[in-house]
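ok here's Transposase IS204/IS1001/IS1096/IS1165 DDE domain-containing protein, seq below lol
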Amino acid sequence: MGTHLSIDEVALSQGELYTIVTNKKFKGKQGCLVAIVAGTKAEKVIEHICKIDYKKRACVQEITLDMANSMKLIAKKCFSRAIQITDRFHVQKSALEAMQEIRIKHRWEAMDIENQLIMQAKRENRTEHIYPNSYLMEIP
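and the structure came out like this:
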């Protein structure tokens, strides 16, 4: 079975979901498949994976998974001695989403400042152009 596994869900044909456990040592090649279970419900997946001999499951040192609670539960129940590692894709995705949220927040703040400057210029009857970088320039 291997000491370093990966668990994930995948949609194969017509939206049918499967939970797949693979041995990372084989890098997706022949011999990597440890288990494939129809569905993603934790109880059902746990039931099937626990049919694998406990001694083999106890040898697993590390299991890589996404951030889904069901996958964490499956890993905890089936591979109790293994440490859980969140996969790189989901870590990068979360970081990118957080950065995007901050970028959008700052952009809205910059647009608010820009709009306030435009309103102030209109109240003071000034003809000005506000550049996106918030510099004020007089137009003759």
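fwiw DSSP finds four helices and seven strands in the chain. kinda neat tbh
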